[in-house]
Structure formats: structure tokens, C-alpha cells
Amino acid sequence: MNTVIEYLESKNIEYKKEGTECVIICPNCRKPKLYINTKTLLYHCFRCEAEDPDSKYSSGHFSNLQTEWGDIIPVVPTFSKHNIEEKEEKDFTKLVRKYNYNLLNTKDGKKGLKYLYKRGFDHEDIERFNFGFVSMKNEKWISIPAFENNVAKLIKYRKITNNDENIKKYEREYGSKSIVYNQDILSDYSEVYICAGEFDTAIMIKNGYENSVCGTVGEGTLSPYMYDKLYQLEKFILIMDSDKVGQQSAKNIWSKRLGIDRCWNVVLPEGHDVNSYFLEHTKEEFEELLKKAYQFKVAGVSSLNDVFYDMYNKSLNKTLDVLPLPWNSLNGLIGGGLEKKNLNIIGGIAGSGKTSLTLQIAHHFAKEHSMPSLITCLEMSEIKLATKIVQLEKDLTYDEVNYSHALMYAKDLEDLSIYFAYSPTISGDIYFNTVREARNRYGCELFIFDNLQLLVTSDKESDYAIAVKMFKRIVMELDVIMVLVSQPRKLNAERAPTYDDLKGSAAISQAGDLIMLMYRRRKNDGGATTSSIDSFVPKTQIIVDKARFSSGGKTLFNFIGAKSRFEEWEEN
Hints:
Blueprint: H1 3-10, E1 16-18, E2 21-24, E3 34-37, E4 42-45, H2 46-51, E5 59-61, H3 62-68, E6 76-77, H4 81-84, H5 93-105, H6 109-118, H7 123-129, E7 132-136, E8 139-148, E9 151-159, E10 170-172, E11 191-195, H8 198-206, E12 212-213, H9 224-230, E13 235-239, H10 244-258, E14 263-265, H11 274-280, H12 283-291, H13 304-316, H14 318-321, E15 322-323, H15 328-331, E16 338-339, E17 343-347, H16 354-368, E18 373-377, H17 382-394, H18 406-413, E19 418-420, H19 428-442, E20 446-450, H20 452-455, H21 461-478, E21 481-486, H22 505-511, E22 514-519, E23 539-547, E24 553-560, E25 565-568
Parallel strand pairs: 11-12, 11-13, 13-14, 17-21, 17-22, 18-19, 18-20, 20-21
Antiparallel strand pairs: 1-2, 2-3, 3-4, 4-5, 6-19, 7-8, 8-9, 9-10, 15-16, 22-23, 23-24, 24-25
Helix pairs in contact: 5-6, 8-11, 16-17, 19-21, 21-22
């Protein structure tokens, strides 16, 4: 069902269908003037646009309405110094002028001019794009500035010599803001061309495609800042590199997050990027390529032929779909790691370390796989959760984490893409909407929900079935990894659990692709009722009770409680 119509009907909001738009009464002006496009997910209210243009209901993306109405939980980065102190933005205009002068008027600058001429730029282009030249680190560089409101907020450097292979091809001026290249044009267009890099974008502009942009944080990266700048536009023409990385980026990042209905993909000849293409081909030939632009297939709909091609591509990239956990013994039991479109369930009695285990997974995925994650924990504060992440990153005990060092932690861990979301009134629909927004805006692909029994407060098996089906729908429809924490029924701590012990076990066993159970004996034999982690022995049995695509089995971990960390068990 269409996202907009499904949502309006679930909220009992009356609407009138007019072509591809749903018309509702605007909550701000109280007139039936709020139009929501069911394809682009953009809305606008004619009355508010004319009388109250600053209103949230004047225009925007459908997700803004869902957030305003309390159906998307606000998501914040775990570690961002921008959340703690406002970072002063720098103006690099003087530096841009200096480097541009160096390029055009110095002897060394001739090397930079030669490089740019070979890439198809002339003197007029160099002046227009404010390219420059600088020598640093025993290398020669072309400087590429980016502007916000005509102010240079970023300078990126492209290395044109290779005296030291350890120095990366691209670097940035310290203090640069990660803006969109050519972003000042965004307010003037409803559709844009999205390129892989700055030189590609500049060549597009040179050839008359003024509405061309790209990110400034690396090829194939859609940052939250860039998403916020783009998602209210109507159409995106993706012109990524022709190689496998470029095409996977077009499909799995840009099209997935900006909306498959709004993205058209242009495929360049093999071995080309936009810059190299225009060195060998005419604008007329490029126009023919644009006519062949296509949209990626609708999620969930595949022809038999599509499936066979996907099977073949998967055989060539066996390691791309399965992401290893930090424990080799467990990876061996579950087919190598966690996989997208799989619902993974972790169960165990209270205090056995389920939250610590899932946070260690999130930390590992962010650090080793560069995969952003969203953690929704309904029984622990964000500060407590962040403390555990600091412990994992710094190898500290709980008492060694000093809250007065928060600014230092924010600076050291700001590149760790971990987000938190919490709402006391959470529901299945709210969580689904939040996951979709976090995937689109922040690029989250790992989601942790802790725990199922705080979402489903009844003992009805049917209520568990509805909730678990919702989690399964999330992974299948949004193509993400889900880790769902579940509590067992009242259980004797001296007996290892099975998934039949979990509340809602019938629904869990049917929908779960992987079910892992944690079992730790209590230190005392008296059946103490405390749920403190300290009341359990460190030796932890991990039982893979169900693995849809692997053998399952058991392995042993050692829990270092003071550091909230699990390690593989060593008998000595």
C-alpha cells in the first residue's frame, strides 16, 4: 500500500485523492489546502505558502509531518561535539583567493594548470570554480573550494604528485564544513544531477548543467547534512562512476535513501566517470545517455531473471552481504556474521548482559564495517548507553569513565556513527516510521531494539505475532539488519534456555532468522532474585538455537563486567 495513504488511514485522517496527491485539512490554517504527493512524498499548503511561509506546514517532506505529529522519534547522534558546543564556522575566502593566485601567477602553479587543462578545464573555468594550487607535505595539490551563501566554507585538496604513497589522494582544510558542492543552486531547482565528485560536477556545470551537485565527504557518501539539503527536491538524476562501486552506490545509497520513485540512474560507458566522458564525447552524445536513464526496480518486485542475476552477483561478492561479529567462534555458528534482511533475536534472563552484547555489536559494526546503527533501548538512559560505548572504545571500566571528559569523548568518537532513539509512547508504527527516517537521513543499516517485552505489554500470543511481524517487515522492506532483544518467561537460572522459553515464542520462532540465547549461572546457588550483572558468573554460554541458513550450535564467552565487554572464552 502507498506510504502516504496507509499512514493517513491509520491516523483516521480524512483525505481526498486528486491524481497522485492526497488533500487534507491543514492543521495550521484549517483549510483543505494541504497537498501530499504520494510519489515524491513532498507536501505543500497553498494557503500557508501565501500567508504563513515560515510555517512547518507551508512545504516540506512527508516525514516532517510524521515527526510533527509524534509518529517519528527524534534521532540524535551519540557522539557529536556539535550537540555539546556550537562549532564556529570558518570563512576560507582569503585562502581561496591566495591559492587561486598561486595557480595562475606562480611558476609552481603551472604544474597545476597543466593538470587542470588535461582534465578539460580552461582559464575561464579556473576563475569560475576558484580552483587553486598549494604545495604541502612534499606534494603538489589542487585546491577545490565549496561555498555556502557565496562564502567559502570548505577547501578540499586533490593530490597531483605522488612522492609519498602513504598520503591520501584527498585532504581537507582543517575546520571545513561538510557542505554540498554547488549547493547554492538548490533553492532554484526542483531536480538536480548528482555526481560522484567535485571535478565531475564542475564539468557538468561547464557543459550547461547548472543544477549539478555532489557531496564533499567522499564518493558514495550521503551525509545527513546533504540529505537535509536534497530530500525536499522532486527528482534526482544519478551520474555515478561506471565501475561496480559507483553503480552500487547509486542503487544502495542514493536511490534507496532519497526514494526509488525520484531517482533516475545514468550509466556511463565502462571505465568512465563524468569528467573523462566529456574529454572523449560531445554534449549531444551525453544527451543520448540521459534519455536512457532508468529507475531501479521497485523494492519487493523482481522478475525471475532479476533473481538469477542477483544470485550470480552474490556469488562474486560473498563477503559483502555477511558482516562478521567480533567473535570468530560465534561467526562460525551463524554463517559468518549478520546479514541484511534478517531478523536476529537475542534472548536471556534479566541481567545476563544482553544490552552489553548488542552495544558491542553496534560499536564493532560502526568501527569495522563503517555501518551506522540506531539503538532503541526502553530501559536504559542515553547517557548510560553512551558510557558503555566509551568503555568499549577506550577499554575503560565503568568507574574510569569521567563525565567531565565528555567534550573529549565527543571529539574522539564523533566519527562513530551510532544514534539513539527513545520514546515513552513508542508503538510499532512509530518505530517503523523512525527506522525508515533513520535509514534515509543518517544511513543507518543496523537497528537494535531492546526489548520486545517493553513494546508488547500483554501476554497475548497474537500481540506478539503482530509486533514480530512488524520487525520482520522492517528488515524485508527497508533492507537492513535488525537485532531484537527478548526476555524469557520466568525461568530457572540453573537451566539453559531454549527459544521456547521466550515470551511470544511461537511468533519469534516463525519470523526469526537467527535466535541466539545467553546463559550465565548465578554466583550463588540460592536462586537470588537480584538482576544485577555482578550476580552472574562471567562464563557465558551462547546458544544458537535457530539459524535459518547455518548449522547453529554453542560457544563460550567471558564477560568482563567492569568493562561491559564480551570476549571469547579461553580455558586458561
